[in-house]
Design brief:
The complex is a heterodimer of chains A (about 325) and B (about 450). Chain A is of the alpha/beta class and about 325 residues long. Chain A has a single domain, classed as Alpha-Beta Barrel (TIM Barrel). Chain A is about 35% helix and about 15% strand. In chain A, helix 2 packs parallel to helix 3, helix 3 packs across helix 4 and helix 4 packs parallel to helix 5. Chain A is globular and about 65 Å long. The two termini of chain A are about 30 Å apart. Chain B is globular and about 80 Å long. Chain B has about 450 residues and is an alpha/beta fold. Classes of the chains: A alpha/beta (about 325), B alpha/beta (about 450). Chains A and B meet through helix 7, helix 8 and helix 9 of A and helix 8, helix 9, helix 10 and helix 11 of B. Bound molecules: cobalamin and iron/sulfur cluster. Cobalamin (B12) sits at the interface of chains B and A.
Chain lengths: ~325, ~450
């Protein structure tokens, strides 16, 4: 009850939701007390309310990662190459810069050169890169395949073993090709990134299949596919929001923490095309990525994979302010 | 939550006198529930009941018009539940303590900060004229801004006299008065009433904001915008309050706060910080944002984000299928195939334009899906393309028999050649490479 200066009497009860569900907490990265060699351990998820609403529940701090690609394609944005410099041609040095210069919490190593239609390097070669990165860079690691099912199953088998005990995330398991990833993960105590396509039902279905196949629920991270601002972001935003809400009201098969690959922001050429009307393209590109990341955060992402070093710094500040 | 006939009946005088035109109070209640009668027809309802019934009929959040721009009127917490209705309006500030020339230049500049993207024009929506001195100066500045831009205004001053000097100039175009606060609420409300303009209410604290809203209401003001000083609060609190305010209006139907919410970012923050807060505000529940300043490099992504969030989740934005002319194509110009998803169509069309090679653009009905999505959903099939080619009589319009398809659907080539007898050329994957590609094609 409030009596105001004007003598008007009103009541303002702050509306709080009492969510019955809780987002699962997935451990990402093993330190030496657990037999790993990571210098930190991230916990994805664990919240009991919508993003950052500390007034009504437990919130979780989203982890901020950066992408490292083992072989840059021709269309990789020049703005990033200019910003990161020569180390971008050396995945180990690049990963090191991500963590030790730009302050990323984790690295997402994308093994694109294993793609049979491109470089087609062997799973063994990929695994030796994984080992070197793990040796040189002590932050938790996402190991991502090329997306070619057949090749990926071999890549995950060998790389998963090479990274045994480090509690990596293996990305990604899809509806029609999840088994080999799941096996590689459970055998070596990694978690699985379950990839669905902006579709709540498929996200759920995949979680059910993975769980039935024997992957522990706290070893699954969902990737419902982020889309960049201007490039389908609204679909991704609503899918993620729906997944988070369903988890909070108690759907056990939609309670995995979510990871969002923000590098998709760069699929919109207008983000960095040179055009004086649209302002400085370097600022625009960074803000495009930042805006995409903010959308993912507001929709409930628990981990982000960023591309531009400047957006890492900006998003870190925002997360600090939001988590408090 | 509309009331049922029975709910209404309980509130009526139950005299069954028939003066309202129907024989019984119950019959009258039923007509009211169906919006077939006006409550004023019954001479015996008490003022209390009138208010109760009126407020139950009004929407949870009022739609407020500033100039020709509508804000508020939201009914949901999440866009997937239905949609968000009136997109966040962006206002940029002009201060009145600079010389006239600069005011004119800035007004023109802000007016021009608009971008066309996939057929939608979006940019700065309003100008906030901010008083730094006396009434005379403010009124001059308002006149200058008004004469040099078509945008509706926000009149920014704590002094009712100063605001009134501006209202005298532009009240016809319904500017927003910013703002009534504890110190001046009653006089600002009187101005809002007299000039029939919307009024923003500013308070640092929720209870205070509620009382201001009650004061404004008692002065007969209905068009209110709420400012809980969220532009200056720590980001975390800003997000919490935005959520609380939206819940109070749309879920709790808490009338004193059933109005659009605004954020004023004129508090010394740099452009980047303003843009970040604005992005969060646009995603979460803010109807109006006032910026001290903003550059196109941030405004353009922001307006794109805003368009995304405010699209109707139930409706794919699409263009009509058909044969479109880009430039002035002739009988030898290339024929290019694409999907009818708006984003795809406008992206491809503008890339063709950039090539300066005129072309026929054959837009296939993919039910509003992008090339890749439509392909994955079996809606961009060789049969469909062949059908579209016949339907729009492309063979009558060109002398050659060559079709360029998106690089992403290269696998359709053979089947499509078989079905049409046309030579199918697989284009580049990303249409941003089209300018180069088309130039090369037309040169050799
Ligand atoms: C938003 C989105 C959706 C939205 C739909 C939005 C829409 N209106 O289309 C929704 C959520 C509905 C959706 C659904 C699905 N999607 Co989807 N979706 C996307 C996403 C994120 C963006 C698509 C987009 O907007 N692209 C922008 C437009 C402009 O691209 P475009 O039309 O391809 O045009 C470009 C090029 O093709 C080229 N181009 C176009 N025309 C022409 C013409 C010529 C001559 C040339 C040379 C070039 C050219 O230039 C354009 C600009 O670069 C993409 C991933 C991504 N980031 O691309 C996945 C993606 C397209 N979807 C995919 C899939 C699989 C699906 C589903 C089948 C998933 C499912 N299992 O349900 C469904 C199918 C839809 C259905 N059943 O109704 C896959 C396709 C995989 C594949 N290789 O086939 C993608 C690539 C995601 C992925 N990585 O897996 N999707
Ligand atoms: S006029 Fe009023 S009191 Fe008389 S019947 Fe109609 S509703 Fe009832």
């Amino acid at each position: 009850m409030v009596v105001s200066n004007f003598g008007v009497t009103v009541m303002v009860a702050i509306p709080k939701e009492n969510w019955s569900g809780k987002i699962k907490e997935v451990a990402f990265g093993a330190t030496d007390d657990e037999g790993g060699t990571r210098d930190r351990k991230l916990r994805l998820g664990g919240e009991t309310t919508l993003p950052f609403l500390a007034f009504e529940g437990a919130v979780s701090r989203p982890a901020i990662g950066m992408e490292v690609i083992d072989h840059l394609g021709e269309d990789y944005p020049q703005l990033i190459i200019d910003e990161v410099g020569d180390v971008i041609r050396d995945p180990v040095a690049w990963a090191d810069a991500c963590v030790n210069i730009y302050g990323a919490d984790f690295v997402c190593l994308k093994l694109l050169s294993t793609n049979p239609e491109e470089e087609n390097i062997s799973a063994e070669d990929a695994a030796s890169l994984v080992s070197t990165v793990l040796k040189q860079v002590k932050a938790p690691l996402v190991i991502q395949g090329s997306g070619d099912y057949e090749k990926d199953s071999r890549v995950f088998e060998i790389c998963g073993e090479a990274a045994k005990g480090e509690q990596c995330l293996l990305a990604r398991a899809e509806q029609d090709g999840y088994k080999s990833v799941a096996v590689a993960a459970t055998a070596n105590d990694h978690a699985v990134v379950a990839f669905s396509n902006i579709d709540v039902n498929i996200a759920k279905q995949l979680n059910i299949m993975l769980t039935e196949f024997g992957v522990p629920p706290d070893h699954i991270v969902s990737d419902p596919l982020m889309a960049g601002v201007g490039f389908g972001m609204e679909y991704a935003y609503s899918a993620m929001e729906r997944i988070k809400l369903a988890g909070l009201v108690g759907d056990k098969m939609l309670q995995s923490p979510m990871i969002a690959d923000i590098s998709v922001a760069w699929s919109a050429k207008e983000a960095y095309r040179i055009d004086a009307n649209l302002g400085d393209e370097r600022d625009r590109a960074v803000f495009w990525e930042v805006a995409t990341a903010l959308a993912a955060l507001m929709a409930g992402a628990n981990a982000l994979i960023l591309r531009h070093p400047k957006s890492v710094a900006i998003i870190r500040n925002v997360v600090d302010e939001l988590v408090g | 939550m509309p009331m049922t006939a029975l709910d209404i009946f309980k509130l009526l005088p139950k005299k069954n006198c028939g003066e309202c035109g129907v024989p019984t109070c119950l019959a009258f209640a039923m007509m009211l529930a169906n919006k077939q009668a006006e409550l004023t027809k019954c001479p015996y309802v008490s003022p209390d009941v009138v208010e109760q019934l009126e407020s139950s009929a009004s929407p949870p959040m009022r739609t407020v018009k500033v100039g020709n721009i509508e804000i508020g009127g939201e009914t949901e917490l999440f866009r997937h539940e239905k949609k968000f209705f009136n997109q966040t309006a962006y206002a940029l500030i002009i201060e009145d303590d600079v010389d006239d020339q600069r005011i004119v230049e800035r007004a023109k500049k802000l007016d021009a900060m608009k971008y066309e993207r996939i057929g939608i024009v979006s940019g700065v929506d309003l100008i906030g004229v901010k008083a730094k001195g006396d009434a005379q100066r403010f009124s001059d500045a308002v006149t200058l801004v008004n004469d040099n831009s078509g945008l509706p205004l926000v009149l920014m001053s704590e002094d009712p006299e100063v605001v009134e000097s501006g209202l005298k100039v532009v009240s016809k175009s319904k500017p927003l008065i910013y703002a009534g606060s504890t110190n001046n609420c009653a006089s600002m409300a009187k101005l809002a009433k007299e000039y029939a303009c919307p009024l923003a209410l500013y308070a640092d604290d929720i209870d205070e904001l509620v009382s201001l809203s009650e004061v404004a209401k008692s002065e007969g003001i209905e068009d209110i915008v709420l400012d809980l000083n969220l532009g200056a609060k720590p980001l975390r609190q800003t997000l919490e309050w935005l959520t609380i305010l939206r819940r109070l209006s749309v879920k709790k139907l808490f009338r004193p706060l059933g109005f659009p919410v605004m954020i004023n970012l004129d508090n010394g923050a740099d452009v980047e910080t303003q843009a970040i807060r604005a992005a969060i505000g646009t995603l979460k529940y803010t109807s109006l944002i006032i910026f001290k300043d903003l550059d196109p490099a941030r405004l353009y992504p922001l307006t794109t984000l805003r368009t995304n969030i405010y699209t109707d989740p139930q409706a794919l934005i699409q263009v009509n299928p058909g044969l479109y002319e880009i430039g002035k194509p002739n009988r030898n110009s290339p024929v290019i195939v694409t999907s009818n998803f708006s984003l795809t169509y406008f992206t491809v069309a503008s890339d063709i334009e950039a090539s300066k090679v005129p072309a026929h653009l054959l837009v296939v009905d993919t039910e509003g899906l992008s090339v890749m999505t439509a392909f994955a959903a079996d809606k961009f099939t060789p049969e469909k393309i062949a059908e579209t080619l016949t339907e729009y009589k492309v063979a009558d319009k060109v002398d050659h028999r060559k079709l360029i398809i998106p690089g992403m659907i290269a696998m359709l080539k053979m089947k499509l050649e078989e079905l049409t007898g046309w030579e199918v050329i697989v284009g580049v994957k990303d249409s941003s490479a089209l300018p180069k590609y088309l130039k090369e094609l037309s040169n050799g």
